[in-house]
Structure formats: C-alpha cells, structure tokens
Amino acid sequence: MWAYHYKVQIDFSRPGKPTDNCHIETFNGSFRDECLNLHWFETPCEAKATIEAWREDYNESRSHAALKELAPAEFARQLVFLSGPT
C-alpha cells in the first residue's frame, strides 16, 4: 500500500463532522465542482494534464480568502521572506 510504504499517517474525520477537516473538505469540494465534474477524461494522460492545469491555477493564480486574498504560492513566498534565512 502506497501510504504504508511512504509512512503516511492516515487520519479520518468523524462521520458527519466535516468541520474536523474543513480545509480538506473545502479543497475536495472545489476540486470536484471545478475540475472533476466538468470533464470526462478519455485517457490517463488527458486526466493528468487537465488536473495539473487546475492545480496550477488553484495554487498559482487564484486568491484564497483564508490567505488574505493571496494565491497559495504567493502566500508561501511571503511567508518564507518574512521568516528570513534559516
């Protein structure tokens, strides 16, 4: 199993408690509504290209209210800059 091989800790939300993992639930909803539900993939390569384009837009271009209207990539760059050298 992939998760076991890479020592990933699996943590499940309690049934009926989406607030246990609200940031993941929000991402999953956006991904499904804006990408998966809009496309019928005919090949794995087509799925990979479409999903990668959506992911790039989500992380590089789109503003996120939880990040003070910054895109995640810009938020991360500012965080690294403000943290200074390590």
UniProtKB/TrEMBL annotation:
One of its GO terms (biological process) is DNA integration. InterPro entries: Integrase_cat-core, RNaseH-like_sf, RNaseH_sf. Gene3D superfamilies: Ribonuclease H-like superfamily/Ribonuclease H (3.30.420.10). Residues 1-80 form the Integrase catalytic domain. GO terms for molecular function: nucleic acid binding. Pfam families: rve_3. This is Integrase. It comes from Pandoraea fibrosis.
